[in-house]
Amino acid sequence: MSPSLENGSAHPTANGSADHNVNDDHSSTSLGFGTRAIHVGSAPNKETGAVIPPISLSTTYKQDAIGVHQGFEYSRSGNPNRDALEQTLASLESGGAYALAFASGSATTATVLQSLGANAHILSVNDVYGGTFRYMTRVANENQGLETTFVDLEKADDETILKSIKPNTKLIWIESPTNPTLRLIDIQRLSTLISPLPNRPLLL
User: Fold this and answer.
1) Long-range CB pairs of 179-187, under 8 A, 24+ apart, other chains included
2) What strands, in cross-sheet order, belong to the sheet with 202-203?
């Protein structure tokens, strides 16, 4: 988990790690995109002065006592490289305070869908990645009672899309370009279309 970037300062991460150097002078979103892309998450190394973060290969970090460490315990819960990446990504998002990096797209998909809770409805582009389709229709459906409606979000008219949204629709899943046919979905159109809806589904 990454520390948040609020008012240019870092905060403890979710796994109990200490503050990390986020290079506070460059974390402000008032600075340009290029400046943040280069500097946030790339503070000079305190030991060597290196301006590019070294690759951390350690899987385990020293603890002085249970939960007492210098910011990291196991690489599965956080390591310097992943934290640097998350800090950079959070800075690049307009107004973003957090970012989470995953090892694969499937891990990301599983995390997002599990966060919806039980018995939710998803409106998904019909030309979705095969692994995502199987997760939605088999794993999430059986484990969480998630229901998914697949619609051609590239060619469907507004009325068709709105009729596919239910009171319990929590997520509109788009992939643009789609995999593998590379179809393009008009994200701005969908965002405008669903903005007045009372249930305010997440467009992702």
Assistant:
1) 179/128, 179/129, 181/127, 183/127, 183/154, 184/154, 185/125, 185/153, 185/154, 186/154
2) 147-151, 121-125, 169-173, 202-203
Of the spans 35-39, 44-48, 94-98, 175-179, which averages the highest pLDDT? 175-179
**The CA-based dihedral angle spanning residues 136, 140, 144, 146, taken in that order and rounded to the nearest 10 degrees:** 10
Across-strand partners of 173?
124
pTM of the full structure: 0.73
pLDDT exceeds cutoff 60 at 1: no
**In angstroms, rounded to a whole number, what is the distance separating the alpha carbons of residues 116 and 71?**
30
Give CA–CA dist 76/47, Å, rounded. Answer: 24
> What's the rounded Cα separation, in Å, for the pair 110 and 116?
10
pLDDT digits (tens, 9 = 90+) for 183-203: 999 999 999 999 999 999 999
User: 176 CB contacts (<8 Å, ≥6 apart)?
Assistant: 125, 183, 184, 185, 187
Report in angstroms the alpha-carbon separations of 68 from 38, 72, 92, 145, 179. 31, 9, 31, 40, 44
